[in-house]
Design a protein that fits this description.
With about 375 residues, this protein is of the alpha+beta class. The protein is built from eleven helices and 13 strands. It has helices at about 5-15, 90-100, 125-140, 145-160, 170-175, 215-235, 250-255, 260-285, 290-305, 310-320, 350-365; strands at about 20-30, 40, 45-55, 60-65, 75, 110-115, 180-185, 190-195, 200-210, 325-335, 340-345, 370, 380. Helix 3 packs across helix 4 (about 145-160) and helix 4 runs antiparallel to helix 5 (about 170-175). The chain starts with a helix and ends with a strand. The structure holds alpha-D-galactopyranose (GLA). The site of alpha-D-galactopyranose (GLA) has 11 residues, from helix 5.
Length: about 375
Amino acid sequence: MKPDLQQKFNELFNQPATAHFFAPGRINLIGEHIDYNGGLVLPASITFGTDLLIAENKEGIFRFRSLDFEDQLDIPLQEKYEKQGKEWFNYPLGVMQQFLLHQKPMKGLDMLFSGDVPVGSGLSSSASIEIVAAFAFNETFKSDFTKLELVQISKKVENDFIGVNSGIMDQFAVAFGEKEKALKLNCDTLEYEIVDCRLNEYVLAIINTNKPRKLSESKYNERVEQCQAALKDLNKELHLPYLCGINTAIFNKYEHLISDEVVKKRARHVIEENDRVKEASIVLESGDLKKFGELLYASHASLKDLYEVTGKELDTIVDFCKTQPTVAGGRMTGAGFGGCAIALVEAKSFDDFSKKLIPYYTEKIGYAPAVYNSQIGDGVKKM
Ligand code: GLA
């Protein structure tokens, strides 16, 4: 149960909060490391998320407090903000910097954040906090950004302020997500369709590897660079804006243009995964969850062998899933290198799945995973 946020706000700031906002985390069903290659992704917002309570103050100070972290920040309105170490408040501070860059007037705010998206778990706690802050500032200061613009400036926070060259999927899913729906997002045109996530007799288990957080940003940025190198090589003969501008059949004809074998593997994953998303969204809508599950396994295998972003923790979870007849499929979700996996598990066997997986994983890895039964919930909203 979340503590009484309003009461905590009062204690911290000596005034009541005037507004309450919420933004979820997200899972990605399929389409991994595709968004920065202009392809299709299939994410969904989850019921875990970040709450933000705010009230204006008369001192013109921005006060950042969190129930989850001790570090806090009090900062006046300035012409420019710089990243401060690695603290959590850099995400909303980066959003403020974006509002300044767009010449949006702001006034001092008391802010209390509280979240239950496990940090560093690949469920996008960072996009959740960026979007909740961007949405709250936009409402409070009547800044007139559209929801899509809020997504775009939040992505800029990640790229320019935090320093991760991520794509747009996370911020988009957190802002536009809908209860019990997935989003089929074209990351080139930013057009999207709502896909009914009818899981019938299945539920989605989210399994956190609990792998201690290491610096994965550099490995992520390296993958982005390898994709750019592949695109450059292919464009010796083609004219592609993005790697996902071709399908697997065309890639097979032109892959010889890529000289580096590792770069070639990365490109193959991206292009085949993009094709898989097209198929996956069709089978999901038709309710063929067995086939959907097979595509999840195929996606994981590609992320393991071609893109090399899984690691023994995520592989152990997916290997276990494959031994269970009650599981239709599973894969890592998010950037990888640790974080979470998802699995499509028969609802009636969920407890049994969790009870068997925990000792299996603990014995192989040396510490326990966490298994969540989070649902697909709403996107960002005012409460
Ligand atoms: C992270 C990034 C996203 C996306 C995924 C991998 O979550 O923030 O933009 O690239 O990794 O699919």
